[in-house]
Design a protein that fits this description.
Blueprint lengths: L1 E5 L5 H14 L5 E5 L11 H20 L4 E4 L7 H7 L4 E3 H12 L3 E5 L5 H10 L6 E6 L14 H16 L3 E4 L8 H8 L3 E2 L1 H14 L32
Parallel strand pairs: 1-2, 1-3, 3-4, 5-6, 5-7, 7-8
C-alpha cells in the first residue's frame, strides 16, 4: 500500500517531521511518501495562505495518481483543498483536522484544540461545524506563536503548548487534546504522557484511517459531487490542470 502524505507548505523540516510521525505508525507493508509542493507559502497561517497552497496540493495528488498511490493525507490542520483533492483522487483522501477530531470524539466526550495563531481559530471553528463536532469541541485555543517557531530548537514553543494543554484540561473540561498544526506532529506522545490524557496528532491518526479504508477496499465515491472533475480547458498558468475524461 502506498500512502502519500502531503505537507501543503514548502518548509522541508516540517515535511520531515510529518514523515517521521507517519512512518512511526504505518504498517510494515505501507510505503509512506512524504512530500511538499515546490511552490507556495513557507507556512500556512490564514485564508490567503490556504488558498495559495491548494494548487500545490492538487499537483501532488495528480502526481500520486500517475504513480499508483492508494490514499492520501493532507497534513495541514486547515484541511486545505480537501474536497477538490477528493475529486481528483481515486483512493481516500483525509485531512488531519478531520481525522483528529473524529478520533477524539471516539475516545472522549469532549476535546479542546490547541493551535498556533489566534487568527486561524476561525478556520478551525468552520471545520468543527462542518465535521459535526460542535457537540464535542470544548474550545479552540491558540498559543500565538508562528508555525515556523515550532522548528526553532531554542524556542519555548513546546513549553507554551504544554501550558495551554494544561489550561484546557482545567478550564474546558476536555478529556482529550487535539493538536491543531501539522508542525506539532512530534509532540503528541510526550504531551500525552505528561498530561495523562490522549493528545492526538492528526498525521498519525489520518495515516491509520487511510490504511483501514484502503484495506477495506473503500475508495472515494465517484457518484455525485466527488466525481472526477469535468473535462474542460484551463488557461494561463493552470493549463496543465485541465482534466481529461475518465471512463
Amino acid at each position: 500500500m502506498k500512502i502519500k502524505v502531503i505537507n501543503p507548505n514548502t518548509t522541508a523540516s516540517i515535511t520531515q517531521k510529518i514523515a517521521e510521525a507517519a512512518i512511526a505508525v504505518a504498517n510494515s507493508g505501507t510505503e509512506i511518501i512524504a512530500c511538499n509542493p515546490d511552490k507556495g507559502p513557507v507556512s500556512i497561517e490564514g485564508h490567503y495562505d490556504e488558498a495559495l497552497s491548494v494548487v500545490g496540493i492538487l499537483e501532488e495528488i495528480k502526481k500520486g495518481e500517475a504513480a499508483g498511490v492508494d490514499g492520501y493525507v493532507i497534513a495541514c490542520f486547515g484541511d486545505p483543498g480537501l474536497l477538490a483533492a477528493r475529486e481528483l483522487a481515486k483512493g481516500p483522501v483525509l485531512g488531519i483536522a478531520e481525522a483528529a477530531m473524529h478520533a477524539a470524539s471516539l475516545i472522549a466526550t469532549g476535546f479542546s484544540i490547541v493551535t498556533t495563531l489566534s487568527r486561524t481559530r476561525v478556520i478551525a471553528q468552520h471545520l468543527v461545524a462542518n465535521y459535526g463536532m460542535t457537540h464535542f469541541c470544548r474550545k479552540i485555543r491558540a498559543i500565538d506563536l508562528p508555525v515556523l517557531e515550532l522548528e526553532d530548537e531554542n524556542s519555548n514553543a513546546r513549553k507554551t503548548i504544554l501550558a495551554e494543554c494544561r489550561q484546557a484540561l482545567i478550564e474546558d473540561g476536555a478529556g482529550a487534546i487535539v493538536l491543531g498544526c501539522g508542525g506539532m506532529a512530534d509532540l503528541s506522545a510526550q504531551l500525552s504522557q505528561e498530561l495523562g490524557v490522549p493528545v492526538i496528532d492528526g498525521v498519525s491518526v489520518a495515516v491509520k484511517f487511510v490504511e483501514a479504508l484502503v484495506s477495506l477496499g473503500l475508495n472515494t465515491s465517484k457518484k455525485g459531487d466527488l466525481a472526477y472533475p469535468i473535462a474542460k480547458p484551463y488557461t494561463g498558468m493552470l493549463y496543465a490542470f485541465a482534466f481529461e475524461n475518465r471512463e
